[in-house]
Every structure is written in C-alpha cells, then in structure tokens.
Amino acid sequence: MDGFDYELGVPVDVIRKTNTTFDPTCQGSVPQALNCFLESRDFEDCIRLAVSIGGDSDTIACMAGSVAEAFYGKDRIPLHIIDSAMRILPDDMKRIIGQFEKHK
After folding, report:
1. How high is the pLDDT of residue 2?
2. 19 with 50, same domain?
3. Do the Cβ atoms of 32 and 60 come closer than 8 Å?
C-alpha cells in the first residue's frame, strides 16, 4: 500500500524471526496484521498466525481477525471460538454485540 508505506507480502515466518521489539504504532502493527490475513487459509488460521508472531499480538490479532471475518464470513468462524469468546465477555459487551447483530 504505497500511500501508507506498508510492506505487504512479507511471509509470517520472516516476521516472526525479525519481530524483536514491541511496536504498537500503525506502521508496525497494521502491515503485520494484513500479512497474517493474506497468508491465512481461514479465520482460525489467521488468528493463530497473528498471535504467533509476537510483539503487539493482541492488537495484530484483533485487526487481522476483523479483516478475516469480513472476508471469510462470520458463518465460517468455528463455533468453539465464538462460544469461548462469549463466555469471557462481560454482560454489557454481550448486550452491545446483540444490539449490533440485530441492526445488521
């Protein structure tokens, strides 16, 4: 993405080997998230790739997972992942998700 100076197409294995510092900036985390998505085979693979690269992996996995859900579709997310996430969310967040789903 030339306008943002993001380097896409870097294999996740290369990112893992060179990811030696914590970089929470968009220049550091967005390309990593997009590379995880681009290399993934499905939603779960995308999340696993993002978490495995280290660094700001929670932020990277959130971004990569958002793109993966939009691309692969919510119906392709394994139910065990949805169930696990819903079990640990506070009730107010569950209500917000329910409201969001109603208005799609």
Report:
1. 56
2. yes
3. yes
